[in-house]
Amino acid sequence: MSPTGPTQQIPVVVLAGFLGSGKTTLLNHLLRASRGTRIGAIVNDFGSIEIDAMTVAGQLGDSTLSLGNGCLCCAVDASELDVYLEKLTRPSARLDVVVIEASGLAEPQELVRMVLASENPRVVYGGLVEVVDAAEYEATREKHPEIDRHLAVADLVVLNKTDRVSRAGLDRLRASLGGAASVVESVYGRVDPELFFDRRPSTERVGQLAFEDLLDDEEEHGHGEACGSECGHAAHLHTAYESVAFTSAAPMDPRRLMAFLDSRPEGLYRIKGFVDFGAADPRNRYGVHAVGRFLRFYPEPWPPGEERLTQLVLIGSGTDADGLHKSLEAAVAGPGDIQDEPAMWGVLRYVQQADEDAPGADD
Ligand SMILES: Nc1nc2c(ncn2[C@@H]2O[C@H](COP(=O)(O)OP(=O)(O)OP(=O)(O)O)[C@@H](O)[C@H]2O)c(=O)[nH]1
């Protein structure tokens, strides 16, 4: 049989992990470092602006599909996911592996179940990888003890952002992760791609769970395929979170945006997107990421022809969506704002220095 023949099975790997743990960074590393392995990606964003999909390397060619707004585990049913899997696993797509990047609030168990439920004969479940933010994990687990449940079903745990934690802290964390899955440490998601692609696909055993356990669980929760608002998902992590999307065609004022970011409310855990600072830096757009109290800007030249927009997604729990929106509107530059170089100093404090360890540095 030819390796690209119609019955070739394509492993589908689920990449999960809490908000901001480094899933997109890791996926980008895999895409850059795959050396000949052709990877398809399905990206699921929690916010209505698809920041993750925009940031995946190579952008939205035929082999990257975006599942859009909402958690994959609830927003789509198995048959909808199948449409995407069908596109990526058809022989003409010539892909070797498909990675599904779940939103940071998705329930991995649901995703695994959906892949297993696929009726596409070319799809074979390729394992669950959970990315853990080494710097934030203890605080996250304190707030959401149920997150241990996510790790319990993982085949591989990537303990990421180890640059932000001491060796002693990492050892403590590793011990508390228990002996369940294999744990690999990483900085900026730089793991050996072989860990993803050479895993033996399995339909019998799913991480620490048997397939039967997943089926039992399904009966218990009473949701099989489609998942509406009344299907008992109160226990899902994302029910406690909401996202706010903000778009502005007018540039942001750097000083006022920094005042907003420096005083952002505790519950606002995640911010991501791109900022246009207009005349204060006409050449660059600023990628922005906040994860907990961590904040970074990533300036990069505006792609030619790109519409100059500020697009932000804010994800938090117990936050005031209207208030956040109003604060951001108040940070849009007005006619009286002076957009000179010093205006950018507050932003530049949060730009990664060239000698810091950076994503893609050794890919
Ligand atoms: N210091 C440090 N920062 C990292 C590392 N990996 C990722 N980051 C940063 O963490 C932030 C979030 O990374 P993403 O890859 O967007 O995280 P994500 O899990 O895809 O985020 P969501 O999709 O919102 O859940 C970005 O600013 C990354 O550059 C790392 O190993 N060390």
Automatic annotation (TrEMBL):
Domain named CobW C-terminal: residues: 241-332
Gene3D superfamilies hit by this protein: CobW-like, C-terminal domain, P-loop containing nucleotide triphosphate hydrolases
Key words, A-Z: Chaperone, Hydrolase, Nucleotide-binding
Pfam families xref list: cobW, CobW_C
InterPro entries on file: CobW-likC_sf, CobW-like_C, CobW/HypB/UreG_nucleotide-bd, P-loop_NTPase, Zinc-reg_GTPase_activator
Enzymatic reactions: GTP + H2O = GDP + phosphate + H(+)
TM spans (from-to): none
Protein family according to the UniProt entry: Belongs to the SIMIBI class G3E GTPase family. ZNG1 subfamily.
Protein name: CobW family GTP-binding protein
Organism: Streptomyces noboritoensis
